[in-house]
Amino acid sequence: LTSGYWTKHRPQFDPNCAATECKKMIFSLSGLPGAGGWSPQVTDSQPWLQLDLRDRMEVTAVATQGRYGSSDWVSGYLLLFSDTGQAWKQYRQEDGVGRFVGNVNADSVIHHKLSHSIRSRFLRFVPLDWNPSGWVGLRVEVYGCAYKSDVADFDGRSSLLYRFNQKSMSTVKDVISLRFKSHQAEGVLLHGEGQRGDYITLELHRGRLALYLNLDDTRLRFSSGRVAVTLGSLLDDQHWHSVLIERFNKQVNLTMDTHTQHFRTKGEGDSLEVDYELSFGGIPLPGKPGTFLRKNFHGCIENLYYNGINIIDLAKRRKPQIYSVGNVTFSCSEPQLVSTTFLSSSSSFLSLPATPSASAGFAVRFQFRTWNPEGLLLSTQLALEPQRLDLQISNSRLITQKTHPAVSTGHRVNDGLWHSVSLSSQGLQVTTTLDNEPSSTIELGDHMEAGNSLYFGGCPSLNILGCKNPTLAFQGCMRLISINSQPMDLNRVQQGRLGNYKELQFDTCGIHDRCLPNFCEHGGQCSQSWNTFYCDCSGTGYTGATCHNSIYEASCEAYRLTGGSSGFFSVDPDGSGPLGPTQVYCNMTEDKVWTVVTHNSTDPVRVQGSTLQKPYVMKFNYSASPEQLMALVAGSEQCRQEVMYGCRKSRLFNTRDGTPLSWWVDQGGERRTYWGGFLPGVQQCSCSLEENCMDMNYFCNCDADTDSWANDTGVLSYKEHLPVSEIVIGDTNRTGSEALYRIGPLRCYGDKSVWNAASFYQESSYLHFPTLQAELSADISFYFKTSVPSGVFLENLGLKHFIRLELSSPSVVTFSFDVGNGPVVLAVKSHVPLNDRQWHYLRAERSVKEASLHVDQLPLRFLEAPSDRHLRLRLNSQLFVGGTAARQSGFLGCIRTLTINSVTFNLEERAKMTPGVSVGCPGHCSGSSSLCHNRGRCIEKNSGYVCDCSQSAYGGPSCKEEVSVSFDRESSVTYTFQEPFSVMQNRSSKTSSDYRESSRARENIAFSFMTTQSPAMLLTVNTFSQQYIAVILARNGSLQIWYSIHVDRKPDVFSPSPSSLADRRLHRIRIHRQGKDVYLQVKEGDEVMRAGSKGFIGCLSSVQFNHMAPLKAVLLNRGSSLVTVRGHLVESNCGTLADLTILHSQSGITVSRGKGPLRKASKNNSVVIGGVVSAVVFITLCVVAVMTRFLYQHREAQRDASIKEKEHRHDLETAYRRETAYQAESAYRTELHLHHSSTLRDNREYYI
């Protein structure tokens, strides 16, 4: 049997079965006499099997089988459905997967229960793969039941009015449901309004569903600022879509097909009051029949219910409540709009003959829709060879081009909507018209005619008659193609009787919205091409393929471990969780790192005139949200808050019955009556605990109720109750009575997650936790150290899915998982063994976009997720840490700081009750204090430890000693190194790899300087491809940062502050760039040339570029070929001396990472400068005074720039684990200082 149509000849269904009972067979092709099933001819290159169910049915399941008694079966197929047998739509399962898994032999039956039923008459099975040793063979069964509906057809000039029995209808609860289909992207489905300002409007707008709903807010009624809740897209596809609106008071659920959005409506009231009537299909103008305020709906609506009332049934029975405007019929007309899908961006094309024209010239019309910003729409050879006329999409605009002259029209034609285009020649002009926009024209030198063939969507690979794709072929849909006013019959093309084609799919538009649902997290903006989607994370504070990873550290302790110093930092307490970052002050001057969160009332407040009936109440608003505060407190080891309370004739407790007269409220809203220094639940103050109350008959000094001032100041330290959210004072209304209070900021120290560790010393032991909840995304990070060659770090299994991290060999870490598309394995191989008893950092991430694995400073390994495949990781067993469910291949060693999706797992708590596992991890480098500073790495030794300062700009035993050099006008240092390193990439269009690399591109630059000279060149990074980064002082002494990303454009200039830094004070500069994060405006200037010509006179200290410390390399490797020194250099201690005289954090220049302008502030923060970086080149890093060649190459520069910042400030220190993905061993000498300490010898690791 060839491809063709099959009709069911014996319906086998119960017409009365409910939708939930639709499990009976309604079609069977399972045992035809002789053939034993369906098999197309071998010459059929695009076979399909089509079923006609004779009427619309509700299909709930399908089953397939190979051809009987043969080696023919289908192993994968698509399922399409249609009401007419002409316009088809592909059925997509959950996650948008369109491919169905078929058979592995000719006899077994494979059932597929549909996640959402199909209501249609025609089904089409399209084989994708089959037995390579046989051919296509198929037996099918379809399950479901009959489907009945009430249908109304609206022609774009009609509507139905449902009129109420009374003047108005007021409801607090509404349920409205309907199904619709349309081929137009605009049109009103439902409207109603009331005189007091209530309204409800449901309409299609640009192919999306928009709901406007307002309750009793007259301001919005007369304004143009109505805000719609939108849902869905591509709804003009001529297929049925379901809508459900559920409202109770202000709470609304809007459901479109399988997607639901919950929101709270605007307005003051809880009821919706609509006057006179509801209209369906349009908004008629009162008194003017046939006139409408908005564009009417053109299409079909079925099963329209308003609060249980069947509107269409009333209309069909001509009930008086329903008034019909225009021509409303009760059967659905089907417009003949048949689409064709161009599947490939490299090889798809459609060739059609140029039909004769009644007049000279030619005319072509068609409609198209696509997501791609590039693609050839039409190409034809002109009569004047070898000229060609091309119509293409370039940079999202429509371009008409004849050899060299070109004109463009339209804005963003790759928006997924249908666009109409016509191309015609008349006389010496070629005219292009797009939609309803003004036409654009190309002037010709002679009369022209099209050649014999017109190529739509692309050119053949054989380059016939000079036809060549300018960039990419068109990938999208076309319909209504006409040449010289003659419509083209694409059925004849499909049958091989007209033209030629390749990589096309007829009778369907296969466009798919990959941004619905939006997988971009934390407010990332989703954009898409035909095959994939992208997330723009700019301004969100997050990065990664889906904006999943926070760019900020989770605590001040984490910033200290990266070498940070005291200052203001943005911390993200729940990492990749939903809370977002907040700004805190990190005090790192003590052994403990304190996190300080301020509130709105830190000054002393005097209170008088309050009683218990009318108390004084103060609520405290902190710089962090309540949820962020809870996360900060929960993650800290200890928290404190000072409460200063002074009183005069003002008691805290009633001395007769103990009733509290004043109290404070904790973070959970609970009233607390204990005061500073005492334990929860006891109504006492700190003087009672210390036994020094002024009157020992009372538990608080204030309760003595004296005329003199008393003090009950103390510190609240029960962190589960902190911070103080409110204070209530009620006894200051007597003569001479008053109170004075001050609530200090919340202060916390420690990070419970950083040193939460467990030691595994039996291979069969493990820790188990609840099932990992990571369907769409999972980030897993931890530190490990071991001496064994292999072992499983963690594993979680499902029925077929799994996720696993393991040390597979002494130098290889593997990350493997399966989400239903087959196992995926990523491996990172280290050049040194990882079982060296040292701490190693591991981070694995899996999202719907890609998977990645990062180990220490080794190159990041990643793999893009395939498109149109399964997305969700479904697990159902426990999470095993340190072993597997089979108790085999267990891990022996230490694991600490295990964090999954930013939730830290308490390994120590589980280890207390698990045999073979102990709490903590012994060893010198395991303590909670940082032994090595400023990115120094702690390395275990049998007799102590050493600090590896090779990746630090500092020296000394603990990597804390400044490395400084004084320069004169003629001196400079050039450091050249060869290593894998990302540099700015100059491309005009973004491929998927460009988006991926853009999110990972980063630089980290840090140095200190002291000078009185300006202009001055401080530091440059220069590539052989003439791209550069320069940090200079301008003529006025202000700091400027120059980025030259594209060599054919002027550089981008960033001026953090106009203040002069040439003030003989030490300034610390730190620059961190990650991805494309900055928007700017550029003006002309030549500050780099001025700065370079003046050189630099002064002192530079602690220069760091990523993991390289070039200034330190100069002092340690004077004879190295990588180091070039010009002029006279003198080793200095300017950094150390300056630290003794000034605290830089109180006067330094900082740049915030937000959306406001750059400004001066007394806080240490960072600037992120954007670009696209991905190549591996040779880099020259120069700490320079004179750069003659550099200046010659870059004479054009810029003076000013404006920049949009992010909302929260980013610390200038970045953890070494988050540095550039491409790292190499440093080219300068490793500096190790061995500590011989008898006090530490007894702490070495006994388990190894």
UniProtKB/TrEMBL annotation:
Keyword annotations of the record: Disulfide bond, EGF-like domain, Membrane, Repeat, Signal, Transmembrane, Transmembrane helix
Subcellular location: Membrane
Residue ranges of the TM segments: 1167-1192
GO CC, any one term: membrane
Protein name from the UniProt record: Contactin associated protein-like 5a
Keyword check for Signal: yes
Domain Laminin G: 151-332, 339-509, 756-921, 980-1134
SS bond list: 894-921
Start and end residues of each EGF-like domain: 511-548, 922-960
The F5/8 type C domain, residue ranges: 1-145
UniProt topology in membrane: Single-pass type I membrane protein
